[in-house]
Structure formats: structure tokens, C-alpha cells
């Protein structure tokens, strides 16, 4: 009988795909602590982390079964990416929408109801304008901005999620903000209409 503990990750996956459920148990046991730590870095609430860990493991199993996983020999980085994505999905679903505070001049003859409708339209337009400008950023700069300002992650968490150092992450943020300021300056008329 084969000692599953001595098999490489890819061999365990192949064994699992050929019907050996124990092979996948060995693989998960090998990396469960790493996956848990990645989730905890992003979520920071142990009770929620346990639930997200289960969701992540289910997603990993389903992905392997359906043939989505194909990173031969790079199981852990792939599994950590799956964990990060499950965390970010969770944050998006549970986070209250951000509200923008800005002044909209309203004529005196507007009723409270029409003012409310006008403000909602203005918020929607502002959000669309912000999204348009963010989409003009290079993907790594856009990603670091979204992690920092929309997901409210620390630079350490962002570095972990992106697989970079904190220095690289802060550098990307600096360049992203410079680029964003230039884009906003170029599109200033869109924000004043």
C-alpha cells in the first residue's frame, strides 16, 4: 500500500481524481493551517473564519473535481488565492455600501421627496464616474486602491493578499494615488456637472 504522506501534491490530486478520497484528506491536512491563517489575516473574526474555511475547502474540492485546478505542483498558492477570493466575496456581501458626502445645491422650491430623488441620482452618477476613472488605472494599482479604500484592508493584509512585500504594496499605492490624481484632474469637468 502507498504511503500517501510521502506523495507530492500533484500525485495526491491525481490519486483523489482516481477515486482515493483519503489522498485529498492528506492534501488538506497538509495545508489547512496555511489556508486558515490566510483567511484570518483578511477576516480577523475567528467564528467567521471557521465558516469561510469550510466554504473555501468546499470550493477547492469542487474546483479539483471539475478540472478547474491545473497548476501542476502549485497547489498551495492556488488554494490561498481561492481562500482570498472567498474572503473578499464574503466582505462584499456583508459590507454596508459606502456613502459619499458632498454638497448638492438644491433650489428652494424643491420638495423633500424630489430632493431625495435628485440626491440618489447624483450619488449614482458620482459612483459611475469614480468607477470609470478607477478602471483607467493599471490593474495592480486599481486592486491596491480597492483593497485599501473599499475593503479597508491594512497594507500588511494587502501585501499578503497580493503576494508582495509591504514596501511593494505601499509603492503601488503611491503610484496609484499619483495616477488617480492625474486622471481626476484630466476629468475634473465630469465631477462638476
Could you explain the architecture of this structure?
The chain is an all-alpha fold and 193 residues long. It has two domains: 4-94, Rna Polymerase Sigma Factor, Chain: A, CATH 1.10.1740; 112-192, Winged helix-like DNA-binding domain superfamily/Winged helix DNA-binding domain (Arc Repressor Mutant, subunit A, Orthogonal Bundle), CATH 1.10.10.10. 74% of the residues lie in helices and 0% in strands. It has helices spanning 9-17, 21-43, 46-66, 75-94, 112-134, 139-150, 155-162, 166-186, 188-192. The model is unreliable at 99-106 (pLDDT under 50).
Question: What overall form do the CA principal axes indicate?
Answer: elongated
Number of domains: 2
Count the helices. How many?
9
Tally the beta strands. Answer: 0
> What is the beta-strand fraction?
under 5%
- The CATH class of the largest domain, by name, is Mainly Alpha
**Could you say which structural class the secondary elements and strand pairing correspond to?**
mainly alpha
**Would you tell me which CATH topology of the largest domain applies?**
Rna Polymerase Sigma Factor, Chain: A
The secondary-structure element order is HHHHHHHHH
Low-pLDDT segments: 99-106
Q: Mean pLDDT, rounded to whole units?
A: 80
Sheet of most strands: none
- Classified in CATH, the superfamily of the largest domain is RNA polymerase sigma factor, region 2, helix turn helix motif
Q: Calculate Rg over CA atoms.
A: 23 Å
Provide the CATH architecture of the largest domain.
Answer: Orthogonal Bundle
The CA-CA distance between the termini, in Å, is: 73 Å
What fraction, in percent, of the residue positions are helical?
Answer: over 70%
Amino acid at each position: 500500500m502507498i504511503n500517501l504522506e510521502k506523495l507530492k501534491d500533484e500525485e495526491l490530486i491525481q490519486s483523489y481524481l482516481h477515486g482515493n478520497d483519503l489522498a485529498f484528506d492528506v492534501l488538506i491536512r497538509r495545508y489547512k493551517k496555511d489556508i486558515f491563517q490566510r483567511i484570518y489575516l483578511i477576516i480577523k473574526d475567528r467564528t467567521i473564519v471557521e465558516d469561510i474555511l469550510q466554504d473555501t475547502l468546499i470550493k477547492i474540492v469542487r474546483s479539483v473535481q471539475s478540472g478547474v485546478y491545473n497548476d501542476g505542483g502549485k497547489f498551495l498558492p492556488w488554494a490561498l488565492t481561492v481562500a482570498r477570493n472567498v474572503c473578499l466575496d464574503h466582505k462584499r456581501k456583508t459590507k454596508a455600501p459606502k456613502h459619499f458626502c458632498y454638497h448638492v445645491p438644491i433650489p428652494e422650491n424643491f420638495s423633500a421627496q424630489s430632493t431625495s430623488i435628485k440626491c440618489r441620482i447624483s450619488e449614482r452618477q458620482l459612483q459611475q464616474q469614480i468607477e470609470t476613472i478607477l478602471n483607467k488605472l493599471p490593474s495592480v494599482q486599481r486592486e491596491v486602491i480597492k483593497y485599501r479604500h473599499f475593503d479597508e484592508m491594512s497594507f500588511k493584509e494587502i501585501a499578503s493578499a497580493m503576494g508582495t512585500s509591504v514596501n511593494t504594496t505601499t509603492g503601488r499605492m503611491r503610484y496609484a494615488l499619483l495616477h488617480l490624481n492625474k486622471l481626476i484632474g484630466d476629468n475634473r469637468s465630469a465631477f462638476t456637472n
